[in-house]
Design brief:
There is one protein chain. The chain is mostly helical. About 45% of the residues lie in helices and about 0% in strands. Helix 1 crosses helix 2.
Length: about 55
């Protein structure tokens, strides 16, 4: 599914907040990555974030 830039920003931001509050990562964390935003972007790139957009 193609997302608008606004939907992408909202999904990554929401997931980064979850990770910052202690949610377990849904992908294998690359060595040295500890930033929740970078991890959320990596999860988005692998299509691993279980967030649904309703239009």
């Amino acid at each position: 599914m193609e997302y608008t830039r606004f939907e992408k920003a909202r999904i990554i931001g929401a997931r980064a907040l979850q990770l910052a509050y202690g949610a377990p990562p849904l992908i294998k964390v690359p060595q040295g990555m500890s930033d929740p935003l970078a991890l959320a972007e990596a999860e988005f790139a692998e299509d691993a974030i279980p967030i649904v957009v309703i239009r």
